[in-house]
Amino acid sequence: MMRKVVLLLVVAALLFGCAQPAEKATPTPTPTPEKKETPAATPTPTPKFGGKKEVVIGVIGPMALPEGQAEEKAARLAAEEINAKGGILGLPIRIVVGDTKLNPDTAASEFRRLAEVEKADMILGGFSSGVMNTMMEVMAETKTVFLADASSPAHPAKVAENYEKYKYWFRISQNNGTTFAWDLAGMIDYLRSKGYEVNKVYIIRDEHVWTDAVMKDLTPLLEERGIEIVGDAKVGRGYTEYEQLLIDAEDKGADLVMPILAIAGTGDVLVKQWAELQPKFLLAGHDLAAIDYQFYEKTGGAAEYYIFLADGGVLVTAPPTEMAKHFIEAYKEKYGHYPESHQAYGAYDAVYIYKMAVEAAYKAGEENPFDPDVVVKYLEQFKPGNPAKLTRNVAFHKNHALVWGDEYVRNWVSQWQDGKQCILYPETVATCDLKLPPWLE
Predict the structure, then answer these.
(1) Residue 132: CB partners within 8 Å, gap ≥ 6?
(2) What are phi and psi of 125, to 5 degrees?
(3) How far apart are CA 353 and CA 392, in angstroms?
(4) In angstroms, how far is CA 160 from the centroid of its own chain?
(5) Cα dist. 94→50, 196, 377, 385 in Å?
């Protein structure tokens, strides 16, 4: 019993001792750190190309017209294809659009918006030499690469005269007014070689600066061939009173009425009135409307025998390259119809050649391959002897005009036959022979 009491007392003492508060620990003095300058933080590596997340490509043109619509559709198709394969140096392309409304002031304002607000890396398109002049000034100010569509020789002349200011401009869609003159003269040579005599020509042309450039070079070429210009009628946009001009041409003994039309936009009316009158002359020249693959239907078949230039070197029925063949069918698959304007080929090529230039710059070790001055340098590498093989073989002269020639880009002499377009000349690409309308045989 006594042992149990002692054991209980011991246990109680132990429990009582554990319940007592522990002694307060004496804090260990914290050593005073030496005064040192705080090292600068290691900077986080900046992503390539200044943090660039996308490539912005602007499309500018008259968006109420087939020319502008075709440029936008073609650019979007090219961007879609390129993005599906990883974009440009891993960056996706975004397309932004500006509408010139064929007004110089509007065109300049829209170009500036695309360059400064949308931050476009490159802008393509244009259409109309008059509005191109104003856009080139904004281009020079904003230093924006501009793969352009317009035909006046005045544009590459600016590049030649003031390279540092205007070097960002390159012609991409078709050749200039001088080469139009060469092709029109070549058309007459071809007709003569086929036995059709051309001694008197009556010209119907746009009342526009671009045709002035064509006439400047065409007139001496006709004189060299002993051909008299018996009429030179200028017509405005939307003109439809061709019947009186056709009658005047016949009264003056014309062998050939030569349209030089793009802005008028009423080539279908001209052809209908020619087919109805059946005058004693051929209708052969440049008419932008005639390149449309639906032109025959629009004229109710009156386009049969119409001879025209295939601007930009491509017809739906005669693609000159494998890429052109692919593009034509891809365009139809995406939009339900073939390209409505030859501007489509230039716009599509513009996106691809820009990609080629940027990637070449990157491969060469350029710090920023998207820098416009750098891009210009690499676009200039596509020159005679080293074209970019696209829907056409695209190369640039030193003044950034498009290289003309059978192996590059030229306006094929073509004709509507049996409801289809075919190429008459040059022989290297010809797909048919000349057919004269029955009233001239």
Answers:
(1) 126, 148, 150, 152, 155
(2) 110, -150
(3) 11
(4) 21
(5) 18, 52, 23, 32
180 Cα distance to chain centroid:
19
d(CA 281, CA 439): 9
Which amino acid makes up residue 95?
I
In this structure, is the dihedral angle defined by the CA atoms of residues 173, 179, 180 and 185, taken in order, positive or negative? Answer: negative
User: Are 95 and 31 contacting, i.e. CB atoms less than 8 angstroms apart?
Assistant: no
Task: Summarize pLDDT for 165-209 with one digit per residue, the tens.
Answer: 999 999 999 888 788 999 999 999 999 999 999 999 999 999 988
- For the chain, which domains are there? 52-175+320-394 (3.40.50.2300), 178-310+411-429 (3.40.50.2300)
Name the DSSP letter for residue 240.
-
Is omega for the bond preceding 47 within 30 degrees of 0, making it cis?
A: no
Q: In this predicted structure, what is the pLDDT of residue 264?
A: 92
Burial class, 431, CB count within 10 angstroms (exposed 0-12 / middle 13-18 / buried 19+)? middle
Residue 173 structure tokens: 């869609």
Give SS3 for 337. Answer: coil
